[in-house]
Amino acid sequence: MSKPRSQKLPVHGWIVLDKPTGITSTQALAQVKRIFNAAKAGHAGTLDPLAEGILPLAFGEATKTVPFLVDAQKSYQFTVRWGVETTTDDMEGTPTRGSAVRPAHAQILASLHAFCGAILQTPPA
Q1: Does residue 106 contact residue 116 with C-beta atoms inside 8 Å?
Q2: Catalytic annotation on 90?
Q3: Which has the closest alpha carbon to 68: 91, 45, 96, 89?
Q4: Residues 72-84, buried b or exposed e (16+ Cβ, 10 A)?
Q5: Both 46 and 94 in a single domain?
Q6: What domain count does the chain have?
Q7: pLDDT tens-place string over residues 4-34
Q8: Which residues are CB-neighbours of 100 under 8 A, at least 6 positions away?
Q9: Is 6 domain-assigned?
Q10: Which helix (H) or strand (E) holds 27?
Q11: At 28, is the secondary structure helix, strand, or coil?
């Protein structure tokens, strides 16, 4: 005889999760939803599986407020590894080329304006 399903609980509110690397935002949400046995849940935004960081999770009635957070201003911090090209354009790929050339501080500062404001990203093929 199969085990009866437990009734989902009406959990309402927000949890701010520090998502670790190695899982998707949807997987992180599913784990927390299972812990709370919550009936309804959603996440505000998405982090790449390789990214760690803040992932706001909404439960129950709070899911109605997700659009307000999604449209809010965000900031990102990152680490750069100069001189390495990989097969996947990220740290999971196999290095294909390397270079000892490093940009000067002034060159980096001069290029930062291209990364401010609204940016439409196209993932590599």
Answers
A1: no
A2: no
A3: 45
A4: eeeeeeeeeeeee
A5: no
A6: 2
A7: 567 888 899 999 999 999 999 999 999 999 9
A8: 83
A9: no
A10: helix 25-36
A11: helix
